[in-house]
Amino acid sequence: MPVKLRNMPVNGETGRRNLIGLNRYLYILFTLSQYICIKLIMASKVIYQVDAFTSEPFNGNPAGVCITEKEEPSGWMQNIAAEMNLSETAFLFSDGGMLNIRFFTPEAEIDLCGHATLSSAHILFETGLASPGQVIMLSSKAGILSARKDGEWISLDFPSYGVKKTEIPEKFLKASGINPPELYRTSNGWALAVCKTEEEVKKMSPDFAGLCDSGFGYLIVTAPSGSSDFDYVLRCFAPALGINEDPVTGSAQCVLVPYWNARSGKKEFKVRQLSARGGVLRCLLQGNRVIISGQAKTVFRAELFV
Hints:
Blueprint: H1 12-43, E1 46-52, E2 61-67, H2 74-84, E3 88-95, E4 98-104, E5 109-110, H3 114-126, E6 136-140, E7 143-150, E8 153-159, E9 163-165, H4 170-176, E10 182-186, E11 191-194, H5 198-202, H6 208-213, E12 219-224, E13 232-238, E14 243-246, H7 253-264, E15 268-273, E16 279-286, E17 289-294, E18 296-303
């Protein structure tokens, strides 16, 4: 961390050594202050609410981000997630030198969440816990997730999942209210319905209890975009997790990007989610990984007293 001080005379070898010493001192001071900042944030159990996959507050998908000094009991994390009452709350803690992340809905823990990962990376960059050029590595139950910052966008490196075509049962038609030409089961436990038009996806009004009862409590619905600004659209329903409709679903792209790649031959996609809050994503298929990019906005920061 070189420092140039104006009007400071540097005379000969002694002056040069003094300046080097001052630089070292300032670097140590900067590093120490950053360390103290991290410890204070973690020790005080700070929680944030972030709107993900949007550049404007009160849009996109809100997520909780809680940073703790150590891993808290699962029951405590579940209670905090229920108290936040957002689709997901992420918990970050250090364990063995690795930054860990766990995701909770108001009712259960899940292995992977795109918008909560994006929100977590956003907070790490915004607070200075991660530098702009740093690649953040997060250990999750779905494996190692990485995030990097590119201007106002953050890119996540996620796994990809395959699909297997299945018959369309009558109970699905009744519960979903749509009649898609294609229905799939995904390798990560979801169902994927592919409609012909964006309008069909937009007008959907499913019976959420019926989806759960018919075995389709985790459902992604997609169609080609009706706008030249986007490649495909989607909505995502997870009543089995207590989330009737997810506002913006990053992890759904782990299924959709490989699917649309196989169908179109494209590797890069601009995506729009058609929920009431709405959201925009940029996605890229890179080998067997899916790069999901989005923006985020911090709404508030609070301290927990429990």
